[in-house]
Amino acid sequence: MTDRVYLDWNATAPLRTEARQAMIAAMELVGNPSSVHAEGRAAKSLVELSRARVAEAVGCKPSEIVFTSGATEAAAVLAQAHGIGDVYVQDTAHDCLWAHAQMHGQTPETGNTLAMGLANSETGVITPPPARHDGLFSYGARRADWLLLDVVQAIGRVPFAFSWSGADLAIVSAHKLGGPKGVGALIVREGLDIGALSLGGGQEMGRRSGTENVVGIAGFGAAAQAAARDLADGVWDRVATRRDMLEATIVAGAPGTVCVGADAERLPNTTCLIAHGWKGETQVMAMDLAGFAVSAGSACSSGKVRTSRVLQATGFDDVASASAIRVSLGPETTEHDVMRFADTWLAAHKKYRARAA
Hints:
Helix content: 25-40%
Order of helices and strands: EHHEHHEHEEEEHEEHHEEHEHHEH
Number of strands: 13
Number of domains: 2
CATH architecture of the largest domain: 3-Layer(aba) Sandwich
Distance between the termini: 34 Å
Strand content: 15-25%
Radius of gyration: 21 Å
Largest sheet: 8 strands, mixed
CATH class of the largest domain: Alpha Beta
Number of helices: 12
């Protein structure tokens, strides 16, 4: 198993050394952050240090960070903060946002909040957020008062700052940055009044009650700090070079294969390949047996045999949408890893074409 190659960074990034060390140190703290004694103050201090680190990485004020169990819980602000019928959700948005549209329907032309993704988890395509005009955000024919951005895939990989995005709300997850699973944040623009995500003791400025996950938050803060440093150092530019090499090799060896969004602005690490008629889940299993971890769609939809809603919304037919895999690289992915995968995929594709002939 040691020669396996992990190419599913958009599902979750490997835990960073910095995050692991921060979490181990946090485990030594005894106190509850809400306690006023020395032990409690030590835990509270670590939470606030981590809050400042996350805020710096996402470009917001520490007071705008609300720690949650992840981006999905943060997205619950759509239901908790105001009437769900007043929300319009982008058709290619992640399931944690799209679920609200499915449950309650889309508004026809106006709404209280537009919820959208900055960078798509399946295709990597970046959709710049709309600017506010006359106090409203426009998205197609629809106009909204508030803007919620899913920046889960973007943070630490492409330049972003909540302060200049124009958004009112944003959601982020630690494990996409190399932090631990089970912790994330809701970012709330200063001065915006929202309801509580959960009621109870009033932690997180009354917006999310419950004793803070000090260990997870410490790992989140350390990972966010390291991710911001990587971005500033140009680490993801080198990843993009390897991504482009992968795509060029695949397309040259299997003409007709589509790299979704190849002409669009994308995340530097993401390739969505469509080999028309070759089912995505079949490709995933073949690559897994060959020692490569890839996925068919977002992590929240992988394992479910269904056509990609995102690709359908992008204009691909049912067969094409069911024939896609996502290959997502990371800073640890080498040129050798990329070329090994390309050679293995092309060999499997050749066998598929021979069987289908």
